[in-house]
Specification:
Transmembrane segments: 47-70, 77-93, 105-125
Mean pLDDT: 85
Low-confidence stretches: none
Protein name: Bis protein
Number of strands: 0
Keywords: Membrane, Transmembrane, Transmembrane helix
Amino acid sequence: MKDNIYQFPVGEQKNAFKSAVNAKKRKEQRSQAISKTGAVLRRFLDWAFFLVRLGLATGLHIVVCLPFSALIALRKPIFWIGGLICVITYYHLDHHFYSDKNYTIPFFVSAWILSFISLPVLVFLNTRMPFHHLLGLESTEEKSHTEA
């Protein structure tokens, strides 16, 4: 057995080889730990970004839909109280609908007309959810009504 085919490291070479292998193992373990930590951090950031977008889209939806809902709910009081104020203002302004500093009649008339337009607009906003769609929160199952 004096002619070995393989040359195995002996002594100092063996210790250097072991330390190199151990260093490589430590480096791989460290990179695996970092990749696991990075995956957890990435998942957390993805969820945080999703929740920020969801909160923003929901807040914008509420802020836009709330005035339309108020106009729909107050349609009859706008007509009666606004109409009474418009009649009083009309006679107060010497039979003019508005003056340079008083736009009461155009305001109440436009609010009354807008209260009739509010219902279809609110239905559209609630079915299409444009802010959720704009911020990419619409799932693939819900996209069927936008394609048709």
